[in-house]
Amino acid sequence: MTVSVLAKMEEYDHEQVVFFQDKGTGLKAIVAIHNTTLGPALGGTRMWPYATEEDALRDVLRLSRGMTYKAAAAGLNLGGGKAVIIGDPKKHKSQSFFRMFGRFINTLGGRYITAEDVGIDVNDAEYMYMETDYVVGIESNHGGSGNPAPFTALGVYQGILACMKKKFGHEDLTGIRINVQGAGSVGSNLAELLVKSGAKVTIADIDKERVEGLAKRLELEVAEPNQIITMPCDILAPCAMGAVINDRTINELQCQIVAGAANNQLEHDSHADLLGKRGILYAPDYVINAGGLINVYQELEGYSPERAERMTRGIYYNLMRVFEISEDQKISTRDAADYLVKRRLDKIGRANNVYSPRSKNLLENIHNRRA
User: Fold this and answer.
1) Which positions are catalytic?
2) What is the pLDDT of residues 258-309, one digit of tens each?
3) 3-class secondary structure, 253
4) DSSP for 283-321, written as a single string
5) Which entry of 3, 9, 48, 356 is 20 to 30 Å from 178 by CA?
6) Any residues with CB less than 8 A from the CB of 50 and at least 6 apart, and which?
7) Which residues are CB-neighbours of 217 under 8 A, at least 6 positions away?
8) Of 41, 150, 44, the residue nearest 89 (C-alpha)
9) What is the pLDDT averaged over residues 46-70?
């Protein structure tokens, strides 16, 4: 790789980056552990046909840092980590592939706990679980919580209500036009919640068969993937890949709110200031999309769907606090969310600097699921 890994780690302030490969299965993966001040690093595994290893490294570094902020903003005792597998999820999956990945995860001794992300489903997680306890989002018969996507969608829905309250003074979605980019597990669940609330939803996805099936079932309008970001709407909900708010798109946005599930929606942090200057309310991605993380975290404490749902609904109040800080301090909502996170990391960090698996009951609970 032409990029300096250590330089990138220093830039993003990471603790550890680990590369795995297995010639027999074709597995090529990177695990990034950003920060373990609050607890073990937890974050899903993404499988994607990255064009280069540099692209994969850049993605895993940004995603893992986002997980640190997501956990801290949600009040969870977790650090931030992420994994990426370089490959096409429609072509390169097998039981041996994910069992080997599970073995690699196990060598990290609990510093990193994985789950599902883009390109990974519950079946893949089950194969990992054959080789390691350090995976969440597994089926309920193994003490897990299953697919976290419905909770991610619920959290985004709660966040949209908070944005509505802040921007319009009410939470009634009847007739509100919402563009959802991405018809995957989260986007489809979110679209269903929005339709039930009376919103007018337009959806787009690169998988035409999937989006057309969803549109038919929910009676949605369908747009082209490369157009939906800049189409007129009240709320734009990015629920696919990141960096959709960038130098090209930001001046073409025709919405009043950006509130979606995608990680790293802003190509650069400075785009949050530009959104504010345009009068567009931005819900920081790692605050609004924390529902899935909140849900799988419950597996570490003994899973309760009722508690997971109650905590996920708290995303509404987390965002309202972000908006309050943003207004009081006259800073972007992104900076306001960062302020909350850094304050918590600083306070906890004084008593608990670097995570050690031997001192944490959370890992005892994750092993006990097999009992």
Assistant:
1) 82
2) 999 998 899 999 999 999 999 999 999 999 999 999 999 998 888 889 999 9
3) coil
4) --HHHHTTHHHHHHHGGGT---HHHHHHHHHTHHHHHHH
5) 48
6) 56, 59, 84, 86
7) none
8) 44
9) 95
- 130 and 156 share one domain: no
Q: What angle do CA 25, 48, 225 make, to 5 degrees?
A: 150
Residue 84 and residue 45: Cα distance in Å, rounded? 5
Residues 176 and 115 in one domain: no
Residues 330 and 276 in one domain: yes
* CATH number of 90's domain: 3.40.50.10860
Q: Any idea which residue has 């969440």 for tokens?
A: 136
Question: pTM of the entire structure?
Answer: 0.86
CB 17 within 8 A of CB 5: yes
Strand partners, 64: none
Question: Residue 37's domain spans which residues?
Answer: 5-65+79-135
Residues 86 and 12 in one domain: yes
187 shares a domain with 41: no
Domain total in the chain: 2
Q: Is residue 226 part of a domain?
A: yes
- Kindly give, in sequence order, each residue whose CB lies less than 8 Å from that of residue 166, ignoring residues fewer than 6 positions away: 281, 320, 323
Place of tokens 């690169």: 206
- CATH number of the structural domain spanning residue 264: 3.40.50.720
